[in-house]
Write a structure and sequence with these properties.
Layout lengths: L23 H9 L9 H7 L2 E7 L3 E8 L4 E9 L8 H11 L3 E6 L11 H15 L3 E5 L3 H9 L1 H6 L2 H17 L4 E2 L5 H6 L4 H4 L3
Parallel strand pairs: 1-4, 4-5
Antiparallel strand pairs: 1-2, 2-3, 5-6
Helix pairs in contact: 1-4, 5-7
Length: 209
């Protein structure tokens, strides 16, 4: 895992309590930390947030970025490699959360221009809910439609060719930029299971996996 090269963690106000809706093991882990989960309005949370961690979730890789609301931008932090969708490196995620003490966590949300979900949205929703329970922090989803394209533009072809994993971390930084620009970011609790199972993009028609 790549260590952050600059900046230092900042403490942030703890979010207000809210009952988590995650898996049993994750709920136990969240309770063991003694942290309360939070649910506030998007505007209030954005104003209170000094630092946030963003995640570009994929089945095999998860790009992570850190950002400061006062600067309004994110920067790539690291990319984690998963064995599969069920074997996420939660220890590494929890270590980063403990180090940086973000007031909010942000996950890229896979939708098209019409707001329909791509098939991987169910896995992203599951990851985001587990993240919320395990971290005891509010988690928001942000449109990630152009994150990969913008990340590729920032990095350049040669950098991506040398280290493709950098693209995921940079995409997370783009996602975080979107979060800071949102007046009312969407909490993961507002995303229903029905939304990600019925309002789907035809992946075959779009050519997206």
């Amino acid at each position: 895992m790549t260590e952050p090269t600059s900046g230092s963690p900042r403490s942030a106000p703890a979010p207000s309590p809210n009952e988590p809706n995650g898996q049993a093991n994750d709920q136990a882990n969240g309770q063991a930390t003694g942290q309360a989960t939070g649910h506030a309005t998007g505007q209030a949370t954005r104003q209170a947030t000094y630092q946030a961690l963003a995640f570009d979730y994929g089945e095999w890789r998860i790009g992570i970025a850190i950002g400061d609301r006062r600067l309004g931008t994110g920067r790539p932090l690291t990319t984690l490699h998963n064995r599969n969708a069920d074997q996420i490196d939660w220890a590494a995620i929890e270590a980063l959360t403990a180090e940086w003490q973000p007031a909010a966590l942000v996950v890229g949300w896979p939708i098209d221009d019409a707001g329909r979900c791509y098939p991987q949205a169910a896995a992203v929703r599951r990851f985001a809910n587990r993240l919320r329970v395990r971290s005891g922090r509010p988690v928001y989803v942000v449109d990630e439609r152009l994150s990969s394209e913008q990340a590729a533009e920032r990095l350049g072809r040669q950098t991506i060719a040398r280290d493709p994993a950098q693209l995921d971390a940079m995409a997370a930084a783009v996602i975080l930029d979107g979060f800071f620009a949102e007046d009312s970011p969407r909490p993961i609790e507002d995303v229903t299971k029905a939304e990600v199972t019925t309002n789907l993009v035809d992946a075959a028609a779009t050519g997206r996996d």
